[in-house]
Write a structure and sequence with these properties.
Elements (H helix, E strand, L loop, with lengths): L3 E8 L9 H17 L4 E3 L17 H5 L12 H10 L2 E12 L2 E11 L5 E6 L19 H4 L9 E4 L2 E7 L6 H8 L5 E6 L15 H16 L2 E6 L2 E3 L2 E3 L4 E3 L5 E4 L6 E8 L3 H8 L2 H4 L10
Parallel strand pairs: 1-2, 2-3, 7-8, 8-9
Antiparallel strand pairs: 1-14, 3-4, 4-5, 6-7, 9-12, 10-11, 12-13
Bound molecules: D-[(amino)carbonyl]phenylalanine.
Length: 302
């Protein structure tokens, strides 16, 4: 029985600071209904899909910062998204800012969850690689304050049994680091769900700006091919609160080929029918880990 999943990367255009959570949820539900009309089994929303990417500006007051976080998921404002997914019988991946009460401590993560077609949360990931800085840099045209607003993820790189396969998640900057894919790949991961908010301009290293789209795609194609995994990568695109963000949402096959990609910088579905069994060609055929990894080099063993 072939294990094929029709998956939509649900790229979003900008979310403004004045947009309320219910208004954003309405956009997400609209994309979810569209995906269902295309017979999708799964829709992948982006990083911090409920709010503008607030690490792009300095916020002094913690209560104001916390207004961008979800204290519970689902909560009163996000429940309609979970209800609609269950009604449509479509799974989803959602990036969001997670407020986590850990005993006496309040912890804050840049997180994502996988929700199965019956509305159950079956997996959670917390972004490991936090780019940018914790200090305010007034001379920069915008900030990247993830190190101020979030802690590094404390869940590692988990792989979950979902949608008939082995599924993992990464978030934005994670996709630039080969070890992110390797940790998932060595656990047999077949499908990576990934959201990102990527500015075209890198204030400290502007020489990389002209290569923003290339580095984005290069990272995904290498990760997919070298670990035999499908990758669904979903952007928050366009000029959001004055910051130009790349689009380029795409679906990459275990062969490393880009099989579908976005054509706009707005709300757009990028859809492909993914055969999970294609992973085997690369996991067993091209990269048979056991007989290629020579013990005495001390390389990773499965
Ligand atoms: N954004 C960016 C990303 O990794 C970045 C930050 C851009 C780092 C360009 C290095 C170069 O796509 C997030 N949110 O991680």
């Amino acid at each position: 029985m072939p294990r094929t999943l029709t998956i939509a990367a649900a790229q979003m255009g900008p979310i403004t600071r004045s947009e309320t959570r219910p208004q954003v949820i309405e956009r997400l539900i609209g994309l979810m209904r569209q995906a269902k009309q295309h017979n999708c089994d799964l829709i992948v929303f982006t990083e911090c899909a409920l709010t503008p990417f607030f690490p792009h500006w300095w916020i002094a007051n913690q209560a104001e910062i916390d207004a961008y976080f979800e204290a519970t998921l689902p909560g009163p404002q996000t429940q309609p998204l979970f209800d609609e997914a269950a009604r449509l019988s479509i799974g989803f991946c959602l990036g969001y800012a997670e407020l986590h009460h850990d005993g006496e401590r309040t912890r804050r993560f840049n997180s994502a969850v996988i929700v199965e077609r019956d509305g159950r949360i079956v997996g959670r990931y917390r972004k490991v690689h936090l780019p940018g800085h914790a200090d305010q840099r007034p001379s920069n045209p915008f900030q990247n304050l993830e190190k101020r607003y979030f802690e590094p993820g404390n869940l590692g790189f988990p792989v979950f049994e979902a949608f008939g396969g082995k599924v993992g998640m990464l978030i934005c900057n994670d996709r630039r680091w080969p070890e992110s894919y390797r940790c998932l790949g060595l656990q047999g991961c077949e499908l990576v769900l990934l959201g990102y908010n990527t500015p075209r301009h890198f204030p400290e290293y502007p020489e990389t700006d002209r290569l923003a789209d290339f580095h984005h795609q290069l990272s995904l194609q290498a990760g997919a091919y070298q670990n035999g995994m499908w990758i669904v990568a979903t952007a928050k695109a366009g000029v959001e609160e004055g910051v130009e963000q790349i689009g380029g949402s795409m679906i990459v096959a275990p062969s490393g080929e880009v099989v579908a990609q976005a054509a706009t910088f707005g709300d757009e579905l990028v859809i492909h029918r993914c055969d999970l069994d294609l992973c085997r060609t690369y996991k067993e055929g091209v990269f048979p880990a056991r007989n290629r990894r020579v013990e005495h080099y001390g390389l990773l063993t499965e």
